[in-house]
């Protein structure tokens, strides 16, 4: 059932990409509006200076952010996603990759169907490379094969996964610039969750100061 779930997710992406194209052509050409995709992403920081961890962090970004952004901004799935899924699909006994390939016509339809990039960002995780998962039931996590974790000294929000790491915002924005060029970016979500119930929430003020400063530094 896992391959079917993956195919369902990819099919949804295909539907979204083509819906964006036709909406852009038939609606916004008339009303002169703007269109984009909103992508939520964590920043993934290499757990060490090793080449393996550097590649693991980049792979995690491409399997999370790039999976959605690359077809629209660059015209195809990220190359590392194409290669990893094709390699594991063959070892799993599939006659073709579990990741459907875009046709040349589809690439032309999808690429460029945006006016700006909308970004949701809250937190950061460290990433280390791991040995490739054994060949068995296909899964998204097995395709990536990384270990993601957080530094225990990072301040937290109310959720266990939420760590306050302002420099992650700066590094994410720099990576977006390097990867996608001079695309206009609008940050559509960012903030601090808590359950303190207090009005004088200096910790939230500090959070916004840190993240806004990180945006300026980028």
From TrEMBL:
Alphabetical UniProt keywords: Glycosidase, Hydrolase, Membrane, Transmembrane, Transmembrane helix
Organism: Anoplophora glabripennis
Pfam families membership: Glyco_hydro_1 (PF00232)
EC annotation from Swiss-Prot or TrEMBL: 3.2.1.21
Protein's name according to its UniProt entry: beta-glucosidase
Membrane-spanning ranges: 6-26
Keyword ATP-binding: no
GO biological process, one term: carbohydrate metabolic process
GO molecular-function term, one example from the UniProt record: beta-glucosidase activity
InterPro entries according to UniProt: GH (IPR017853), Glyco_hydro_1 (IPR001360), Glyco_hydro_1_AS (IPR018120)
Residues at the catalytic site: 189
The keyword Membrane belongs to this UniProt entry's keyword annotation: yes
Recorded name of the encoding gene: LCTL
Similarity field: Belongs to the glycosyl hydrolase 1 family.
Record PANTHER family: GLYCOSYL HYDROLASE, LP05116P
Top enzyme class: hydrolase
């Amino acid at each position: 059932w896992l391959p079917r779930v993956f195919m369902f997710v990819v099919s949804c992406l295909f539907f979204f990409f083509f819906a964006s194209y036709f909406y852009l052509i038939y609606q916004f050409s008339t009303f002169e509006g703007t269109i984009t995709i909103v992508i939520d992403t964590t920043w993934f920081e290499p757990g060490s200076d090793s080449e393996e961890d550097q590649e693991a962090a980049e792979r995690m970004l491409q399997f999370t952010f790039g999976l959605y952004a690359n077809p629209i901004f660059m015209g195809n799935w990220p190359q590392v996603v194409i290669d990893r899924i094709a390699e594991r699909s063959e070892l799993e006994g599939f006659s073709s990759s579990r990741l459907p390939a875009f046709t040349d016509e589809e690439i032309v339809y999808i690429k460029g169907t945006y006016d700006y990039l909308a970004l949701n960002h809250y937190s950061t995780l460290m990433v280390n490379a791991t040995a490739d998962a054994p060949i068995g039931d296909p899964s998204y996590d097995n395709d990536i094969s990384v270990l993601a974790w957080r530094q225990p000294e990072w301040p937290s929000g109310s959720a266990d996964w939420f760590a306050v790491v302002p420099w992650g915002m700066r590094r994410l924005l720099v990576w977006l610039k390097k990867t996608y060029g001079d695309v206009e970016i609008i940050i559509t979500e960012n903030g601090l969750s808590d359950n303190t119930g207090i009005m004088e929430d200096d910790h939230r003020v500090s959070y916004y100061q840190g993240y806004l400063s990180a945006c300026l530094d980028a």
